[in-house]
Amino acid sequence: MSRIAKKSSEPSFTVATTSHELRGDYSKAAADFTIQQDWSKYTEAEHALWRKLYQRQAALMPRYAAERVQQSLDHLDFSGAIPNLEAVSRKLQAATSWRLVAVPGFIPDAAFFAHLAQRQFPVTIWLRTPEEIDYLVEPDIFHDFFGHVPLLFDPTFADFLQLYGVKGQEAERLGMTQYLARMYWYTVEFGLIREGGKIKAYGAGILSSFAETSFCVDDPSPNRIAFELERVMNTLYRIDDFQETYFVLESYSELFAALQRDLRPIYDRVKALPDHAPDAVLCDDCVYWRGTGAWKKRKRAG
Ligand code: HBI
Ligand code: FE
Question: What pTM did the predictor assign?
Answer without folding.
Answer: 0.93
